[in-house]
Amino acid sequence: MTVFALNNNHLPPQRRRSLEVLRVAAMSLLLLGVSISAGAAQGQSGSRTHVFLMRGFANVFSLGMDQIGARLQRMGINASVENYIAWDAIVNEAAAEYRSGQVQNIIIVGHSSGATAVTAVAARLGEMGVPVKLAIALDPTTRAFAAGHVERYLNFYAPGGMGTLVDKGRDFTGSLQNISLGGNPGVGHFNIDKDPGVQDRVIKEIVAAARGAAPRPFAQPTTVQAHAAPARVRVGTVETATH
Questions:
Q1: Element of type H or E holding 150
Q2: Which end of the chain has fewer CB atoms surrounding its CB within 10 Å, N or C?
Q3: Dmax (CA) of the chain
């Protein structure tokens, strides 16, 4: 829609007022169309993304995952929340959605033992030939090695507490960043997932990943790596020793 700016000084006052009303109405419709188009674009990118969020122990210490999931849903981004012990089912669901073409961008987020499980999910998907667009860990309880075909891996941790760093595995080729929250007073293991600033950063990263290009597919390995089974045991026993 094109809105022309004309010199209407030669017109009668009533005519000029009528034209001004029409001009304002036209501009309003134009801006509304831009807003609707932007919203549709975000919804379209979000529909090709599935964010899997994993809580930690007993479903009571990681309710920030539910808050993040609800905010993403309101933004039109598909998000689901499970306890970390369901990580194997998450792997199967993510792989099925990716292979069917239903989902292009797989994003994994976890807190506490759910953050430790992020590494296991990414590794197993890598063994199945399924790429992960973004992995985000919030204060994992066991030091682990990033594995799988992950484009970007972010680990937010509170130093001096229960959280640990994430190291690069031998075959990991993505971007890994350990982000210390030591400069954020009051942020610790049990509230890192609920902190508004952390949540905003996580959601910002997810939205950027959802709008970005889909990760490149890669060849599925012909054999399952030997560390797959131990990784499952390690994640499954985290909560028996620590939160």
A1: strand 150-157
A2: N
A3: 85
Give the pLDDT of residue 47.
Answer: 78
* Residue 62, both tokens: 């990681």
Would you give the DSSP letter of residue 224?
-
For the record, the structure tokens of 175 come out as: 């971007």
Asked if 86 and 98 touch (Cβ cutoff 8 Å), the reply is: no
Count of CA atoms in the C-beta half-sphere (13 A) of 77: 28
Contact 156, 187 (CB under 8 A): no
What are the per-10-residue average pLDDT scores of the chain (243 residues)? 50 64 50 40 69 95 98 98 98 98 98 98 97 98 95 97 95 96 94 98 98 75 36 33 37
Query: Residue type for 66, please?
Result: D
CA distance 168 to 187: 25
21/107 same-domain check: no
Chain-centre distance for alpha carbon 203: 6
- CATH code for the domain in which residue 150 is found: 3.40.50.1820
